[in-house]
Amino acid sequence: MKELLLLLLLVTEASSRSHSSWCEGGCDCRGDLKFTICSRALFTQLPSRIPPNTELLDLSDNHISVIPERSFSKNRKLRFLLLQNNNISVVEDGGFSQMEFLQKLDLSWNRISTLTGGFSMGLGFLRELQLAHNRLRSLDSRSFLHLDGLQRLNLSCNGIHTIQVRSFSSMSSLRQLHLQDNQLTSLRSGMFSMLRSLEVLNLAGNRIGEMEMAVFKPLTSMTLLNLADNQMSTIYFKTFLSIHTYSTHILLEENPWDCDCDLQRVFRKLRSIQRLFLDDYSNLTCGEPAALKDYRLTAVDSELCLAETVTVLIITVTVVITVLAAMLMGERKRKKKKKRKHWTQQGDLSDESDY
Which of 12, 200, 303, 325 is deepest in the core (most CB within 10 A)? Predict the structure, then answer.
């Protein structure tokens, strides 16, 4: 029995020495070297000794600033790569190449300001990309060029103010797009082209005040559209009518709505469409006119439109009465003229008979 215990101890010690030879100092290699945890290890660059069998590599909360070209070429079995909370400002072209098994890449809370065409090289099978809390300002057609299989993209809390047409054109499989808390001011047609599989579009917390009518038309699978906390004062019926999904929930609160009767008509028509659900309609508040500021839209609904309807009726009745009066006066003048002409003709006949 003692010999067996001694043998087990020797095997465990040898295995531990073997594992430690592969594991970088400051890292913890677990699960038969499939999990390499290097979080909070004070690294300023990527570690050189990462077990080749690693499937999850956690490098979060370090001081890494650069991802060089082909940084993970010896770790092609990686499925999860966590790099959040570093100082990364540069990702060289091909920095993540040859990672055909990678499913999740977390680069949130870094200092990335640009995405080159080579950024996504080799990430064709990536399913989730986290880029929240970086320094991105604009997106173009090169930003996500090779992300054909991506399903979830988080770009929240950057400074994005421009998204060029076809920026997401390669993402036909994308299901969730998070763009909340950026600096977008308008939504242009073509911005979301090719996103036929998109189910969740989060645009809350931007500065959106204008939307082109066909901007949501390509989104044939959308179930949630979040436009809360923007700068919208009015909306157009056709903008949302172009959404042809079976069921779409729309969030619109915390916008400075201009509470006129036209807006009420639009919302009344939208609420009558069975496939659209205005989940927070009862929470919408007025930004204009000043007399109605902070009033709930539902509270001023009937009063606004009733006042306008009465005004329209008064104007209509006034116009009708004016027209009728004008017609009546015209008819009287015509009859007087006709009568005068008749008497004139009678007088002429009387003069002739005297002769």
Answer: 200
Omega cis (within 30) before 218: no
The range of the structural domain enclosing residue 214 comes to 184-324
In a domain, 30, yes or no: yes
Q: In total, how many domains does the chain have?
A: 2
Q: What is the mean pLDDT of residues 247-266?
A: 95
- DSSP, collapsed to helix, strand or coil, labels residue 211 as strand
Query: 3-state DSSP call for residue 131?
Result: coil
Q: Are residues 210 and 320 in the same domain?
A: yes
Report the range out of 225-229, 240-244, 324-328 with the highest average pLDDT. Answer: 225-229
**106 by DSSP, 3-state: which?**
strand
Q: Does 209 share its domain with 281?
A: yes
Residues counted in the chain: 355
The answer on pLDDT for 274 being more than 50 is: yes
Q: At residue 324, what are phi and psi to the nearest 5 degrees?
A: -65, -40
Residue-wise pLDDT for 135-151, tens only, equals 999 999 999 999 999 99
The sign of the CA dihedral 209, 210, 215, 216 is positive
The pLDDT, as a whole number, for residue 352 is 52
Positions of E strands within the chain: 28-30, 35-37, 56-58, 66-67, 80-82, 90-91, 104-106, 128-130, 138-139, 152-154, 162-163, 176-178, 186-187, 200-202, 210-211, 224-226, 248-251, 257-258, 276-278, 286-288
H helices present in the chain, as ranges = 2-22, 237-241, 261-271, 297-354
CA atoms within 13 A of residue 207's CA, in its CB half-sphere: 8
**Can you tell me the mean pLDDT for 86-106?**
95
> Can you tell me the distance from the alpha carbon of 313 to that of 30, in angstroms, rounded to the nearest whole number?
79
